[in-house]
Amino acid sequence: MSIKIALSGYYGFDNAGDEALLAAITSSINKLEPETEFVVFSGSPARTIDLHGIRAVNYLNPFALLRELMTVDLLISGGGSIFQDVTSTRSLSYYISVVALARLLRKPVIFYAQGVGPINRSFSKLLMRLVGNRVNLITLRDHDSRQYLEQLKVTHPPLIVTADPVFALEPGLADETNMQKLLDSTCPEEKPLVGVSVRKWKYLQGYQDKLARLLDELTVRGYQVVFIPMAYPDDIIESKQIAELMQQDAKIIEKNLNSTEHLALISHLDLMIGMRLHALIFAASRGVPFAGISYDPKIDSFLALFNLKPLSMEFSEMKNEVDRILNDINFQTNLKQKALDMRAKSEDNARLALSLINQHGQYSPPRY
């Protein structure tokens, strides 16, 4: 008997990280239950159907959401950082309301490998506590998120730290072939590659000059700098701004890549310097050394998993840290082992989710 799962998250908005999460969640569940039917609450249903081949409805259509939730066996809320009120004051309220509706309909709900916070508004904290304590299971991508929920007094459902779902995602042969062709045309010279993923963030102005100077030094030392926009086309503007500050030549990938294409592309890098969280996660999952520029606590939390700190905004310290990462063989070896461990944990998310569906009681949650 097939099962039906609804997915609520920041899907359909051309953000590579969130689209990777959707692909990773559905593929991990399909490995265990190949006949699963999915429906996605999406900002662009047509885009979601085209990218993922999964049925989707408009996330702002309350009648469609109600109709779908009445017929599902499970609601998956997440991955990503949807439970915060920094980038949008409406975001958390919307995603919590979808969860509340599912629980009113007596549907099981899992927060799936969530990264939680920051939550600043008192009303948002209240909503998180009231609704969070009524879901069936919460898996989290880092210990900071678990601690944050405990501080908010979300303690009723089990809180299990796993890993970001994207660690379980693999590029296909076609992705590898296409990205090799893209690199051959974009960077025809045989040079080691430094990928750069940046985004505009009004509270982090001034880093651009220092990053451009660092990238110039790496270029002089023989590296080819390639800007990889993770949110298309938004990140292209910031990428061009930094490239224009450089004295040396840099390339920009001005193509809207899907999740597995990003993975395949990043696997060719020798270093990733990123602001976007999933640029760092993609690099880590492929065993590529990475350095993070922090604009949000989620970056700090992820870097801490690998005993890293965000790059300093002071140039000499920024340069020294990048040099250390490039030259530390032990770090690179440990990174690959850590990525394997996190892949196993990320796959636990799917087993835990399926364990909530009564008719599939054979799925036992792993012990931690």
What's the layout of helices and strands?
Blueprint: E1 4-8, H1 16-32, E2 37-42, H2 45-52, E3 55-58, H3 62-71, E4 74-83, H4 91-104, E5 109-116, H5 122-132, E6 137-140, H6 143-151, E7 159-161, H7 173-186, E8 193-197, H8 207-220, E9 224-227, H9 234-245, E10 250-252, H10 259-266, E11 271-274, H11 277-285, E12 290-292, H12 297-305, H13 315-327, H14 329-354
Parallel strand pairs: 1-2, 1-4, 2-3, 4-5, 5-6, 6-7, 8-9, 8-11, 9-10, 11-12
Helix pairs in contact: 1-14, 4-5, 7-10, 8-9
- What form results from the Cα inertia axes? globular
Approximate helicity band? 40-55%
Q: Sheet with the most strands?
A: 7 strands, parallel
Can you write the helix and strand succession as a string?
A: EHEHEHEHEHEHEHEHEHEHEHEHHH
Query: How large is the radius of gyration?
Result: 20 Å
Summarize the structure.
The protein is globular. It has helices at 16-32, 45-52, 62-71, 91-104, 122-132, 143-151, 173-186, 207-220, 234-245, 259-266, 277-285, 297-305, 315-327, 329-354; strands at residues 4-8, 37-42, 55-58, 74-83, 109-116, 137-140, 159-161, 193-197, 224-227, 250-252, 271-274, 290-292.
